Amino acid sequence: MESAAEDMDRGAMLDRISEGYADARGNSRKDIGDTLLIYFLRQQSVAFVSTIDEIELSGDTAAEILVTVAMAGKNDSTFGLSADAYRFELELESVNSEWLLIGARWGELGHDLR
Fold first, then answer.
1. Within a domain: residue 114?
2. Do residues 16 and 9 touch, judged by C-beta distance below 8 A?
3. FRET label pair with 49: which of 18, 66, 86, 109, CA 20 to 30 Å apart?
């Protein structure tokens, strides 16, 4: 997902998100796709640095992953650069030997996950 994000390849990212994706904010897979589209349209280039903080497997078909991600984007804003750091709690399900994102919570680093 990180390399697809840096390539701003929304389609490749959506391929890793389950059709049944749902999160506590009420987002669907389509909503996440729309958010990615807007983010990528606003940026000329993006860079991500991620650290997997924790992986918890539940049998062979479910996993929860805690990830810290630093993001930077080059854009046409006043300073020409935007940067943020987030913490993500990802829920994944193995379907036909592929791990798909089925839910997520996230928040800015130092804030509660929502």
1. no
2. no
3. 18
Question: CB–CB of 114/106 below 8 Å?
Answer: yes
State the pairing for strand pair 43-58/81-95: unpaired
Residue 78 pLDDT = 66
Question: In the beta sheet, which residues pair with residue 18?
Answer: none
Residue 1 CB burial class (10 angstroms; 0-12, 13-18, ≥19):
middle
56-81 average pLDDT score = 89
**Structural domain tally of the chain?**
1
Q: Which of 79, 109, 89 has the alpha carbon at shortest distance from 25? A: 89
pTM: 0.86
Residue span of the structural domain in which 13 resides: 2-108
pLDDT in tens, 78-91: 677 888 999 999 99
Q: Kindly list the strands in the beta sheet with 62-75, ordered across the sheet, starting from the edge strand earlier in the chain.
A: 43-58, 62-75, 81-95, 98-108
Q: Retrieve residue 93's tokens.
A: 């399900």
Query: The tokens of 16 are what?
Result: 């890793």
